């Protein structure tokens, strides 16, 4: 369908029209779209096919200054959404919050248990090092100390992640029982 180049300025006028104006569109036999703000200007043979255009200004609410102020300005209760119709806290459902907290805490517990085992092993290696001063023993102690240090960093990161999730949950008003 062809659109007349003259239609562009008309469309711009349509967009800038006042709220009470009505505009009509019709397509002639050649496939050219025409626009007007006066139904009388639509040719008789196209009047039954002319479409009344809905303008954004017609569907938009009145300007804030034109609205009444005070209690009368409140919409009726029937038009308000129900209080439980809002989205889940933080945009996530209960299962997401529970799973996120549980997985972080499970990971933290695992890391702490492994760290405790490594610390016990380090004590044993140091005891052996006092008895046997071989290079191999020193390397084992140094490697274990490096592993322990890396685990402590990971535990610290997990604690920070849990704290950040707690803060996010508090901001989103997530119920406390979802955080367990």
Report on this structure.
With 180 residues, the chain is mainly alpha-helical. Helix content is 49%, strand content 7%. Strands 2-1-3 form a three-stranded antiparallel beta sheet, covered by helices on one side. Helix 3 runs antiparallel to helix 4.
Key descriptive features of the protein:
180 residues; mainly alpha; 2 domains; 3-stranded antiparallel β-sheet; 4 helices; 3 strands
The number of helical runs is: 4
Main beta sheet: 3 strands, antiparallel
Strand order of the largest sheet: 2-1-3
- Alpha-carbon Rg, integer: 36 Å
In percent terms, what proportion of residues is strand? 5-15%
Tertiary shape: rod-shaped
Which structural class fits the helix and strand makeup?
Answer: mainly alpha
Query: How many β-strand runs?
Result: 3
Distance between the termini: 62 Å
Mean pLDDT: 74
Helix content: 40-55%
Indicate how many domains the architecture comprises: 2
Order of helices and strands: HEEEHHH
As residue ranges, the low-confidence spans are 14-19, 62-68, 80-85
Indicate the topology.
Layout: H1 7-15, E1 23-27, E2 33-36, E3 51-53, H2 56-59, H3 94-131, H4 135-171
Antiparallel strand pairs: 1-2, 1-3
Helix pairs in contact: 3-4
């Amino acid at each position: 369908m062809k659109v007349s180049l003259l239609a562009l300025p008309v469309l711009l006028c349509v967009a800038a029209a006042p709220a009470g104006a009505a505009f009509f569109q019709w397509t002639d036999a050649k496939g050219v779209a025409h626009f007007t703000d006066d139904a009388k200007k639509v040719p008789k043979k196209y009047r039954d096919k002319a479409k009344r255009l809905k303008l954004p200004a017609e569907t938009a609410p009145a300007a804030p200054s034109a609205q009444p102020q005070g209690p009368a300005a409140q919409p009726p209760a029937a038009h308000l959404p129900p209080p439980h119709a809002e989205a889940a806290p933080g945009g996530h459902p209960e299962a997401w919050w529970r799973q996120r907290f549980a997985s972080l805490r499970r990971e933290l517990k695992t890391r702490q248990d492994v760290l405790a085992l490594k610390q016990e092993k380090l004590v044993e290696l140091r005891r052996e090092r006092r008895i046997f001063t071989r290079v191999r023993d020193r390397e084992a102690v140094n490697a274990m100390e490096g592993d322990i240090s890396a685990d402590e960093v990971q535990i610290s990161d997990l604690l920070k992640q849990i704290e950040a999730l707690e803060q996010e949950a508090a901001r989103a008003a997530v119920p406390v029982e979802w955080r367990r």
